[in-house]
Design goal:
heterodimer; A: 207 residues; mainly beta; twelve-stranded antiparallel β-sheet; four-stranded antiparallel β-sheet; 3 helices; disordered C terminus; B: 202 residues; mainly alpha; Arc Repressor Mutant, subunit A; 2 domains; 7 helices
Chain lengths: 207, 202
């Protein structure tokens, strides 16, 4: 089923800074002039491969009666990344990318970006977490896959108020009052009323 | 088997029998006294037993580290990492203590922590509680608290939350303050009594 997804041949750019996702616990935003190529399933736009200045902010903090545990996650995505989800709003903020736009992002021509986007697309779909061709437009869900330093993907899955973030250094799951935070130093599970904590309760901010 | 060797074995058996009799006498005598029996099992055996005890203790410690539960009554056990050396532990803990004490060493910062004890707050809500200071001063205090790990800010919503160590530190600071005040009062009362008794003697 995964082979049904394919990249579009049209290269676009983000006309103005755009928030791709925003909720109580986080946001993903992308800067002006970022390159974009659509991921299509038949004629439907199911997502994009972006390359530009993007930022991920997540409040990966567990709030408990005994005090807060964890700290916010802030990451910049300067490598191409995949986004699957509702694309209506994004399409309204796209314009045609010029040769100058491609050069600004380090590509000699359109083929350069297409090859890079295809590489990320293949790695995500062939070895990534997407195992069905369910249309993301049907539900209020999104998937973001940011490339990390280990050349793997930090995955953010959103489904309504539910949120799962899996990175090399942490896993954060939020579902209403239930929150799970697992990092190299601690494991915390909070159900609102009960709290299970293993490891250091909190780390002071890094200098 | 040679006759010499047979003779030697016979002597050894007799010696062992004598030793057993002596040991029996010692045990009987100690039993009559109601004391336990102390037998020196030697350094090698003692070392082995100590090693075993150490291994078991480490196993229990390891299991405790893995099995931590905080229930509604607040029962909790946190992992304590073994320092490389006592000296390192001393240095690290003193540096951390200094950082926390510095963060706690200001009335306005204690007021901020007090305000956050009831739940997360935005900076404007904290500003309402601390109207005597400017927003920039408030931000500066929040930075100090954040660097000490007593407060954490949600980057998306912007709310400030008190951390677990923050709650502990605030409670300890207020208790310490209370204790000092009580001791001062007791000392003052005692000193006054002494003065009065001195005056009577005069």
């Amino acid at each position: 089923m995964r082979k049904d997804y394919k990249l579009d041949s049209i290269i676009s750019k983000i006309a103005e800074p755009l928030v791709l996702w925003q909720a109580e616990k986080g946001l993903v935003e992308i800067g002006k002039d970022a390159l974009a190529v659509a991921i299509k399933l038949g004629d439907r736009h199911e997502g994009y491969v972006f390359h530009g200045k993007a930022k991920l902010l997540l409040d990966t903090i567990v709030e408990t009666e005994k005090g807060a545990i964890g700290k916010s996650t802030e990451k910049e995505a300067n490598e191409p990344f995949v986004m699957l989800g509702n694309t209506e709003e994004i399409q309204r903020h796209l314009s045609e990318a010029s040769s100058e736009d491609l050069r600004r992002m380090g590509y000699e021509n359109q083929q350069g970006f297409e090859a890079e986007a295809q590489n990320v697309f293949d790695r995500f779909f062939m070895r990534g977490p997407v195992h069905s061709c369910r249309s993301f437009d049907e539900r209020d869900g999104s998937v973001f896959a940011f490339q990390n330093k280990a050349s793997r993907f930090d995955i953010l899955v959103l489904d309504g108020s539910k949120l799962v973030y899996r990175a090399t250094d942490m896993v954060f799951i939020a579902d209403g009052t239930k929150v799970i935070l697992k990092s190299s130093e601690q494991f915390v599970l909070s159900t609102g009323r009960k709290l299970v904590s293993i490891g250091k309760p909190c780390c002071p901010a890094q200098p | 088997m040679s006759e010499d060797l047979k003779e030697e074995m016979k002597k050894l058996k007799e010696q062992i029998a004598d030793l057993q009799d002596q040991l029996k006498d010692v045990i009987d005598a100690e039993r009559k006294k109601g004391h336990g029996v102390y037998i020196d099992i030697g350094n090698a055996v003692r070392g082995y037993v100590e090693d075993e005890i150490q291994a078991v203790a480490e196993g229990v410690h390891g299991e405790l580290e893995k099995s931590v539960f905080i229930g509604p009554r607040g029962v909790r056990i946190f992992r304590r990492r073994a320092p490389d050396s006592e000296e390192d532990e001393h240095k690290v803990s003193l540096a951390e203590v200094a950082k926390v004490m510095n963060a706690l060493g200001h009335e306005h910062r204690l007021k901020i922590l007090d305000g956050l004890m009831s739940g997360g707050k935005y900076i404007n809500e904290l500003q309402e509680q601390l109207s005597e200071i400017t927003t920039s001063t408030l931000s500066s205090h929040l930075n100090v608290l954040e660097e000490a790990g007593l407060v954490v800010q949600e980057k998306v919503r912007g709310r400030y939350l008190i951390t677990m160590p923050g709650r502990t530190a605030y409670k300890m600071a207020t208790k310490a303050g209370e204790r000092v005040r009580q001791d001062d009062e007791e000392c003052h009362t005692h000193c006054c009594d002494s003065d009065e008794s001195d005056a009577e003697q005069v």
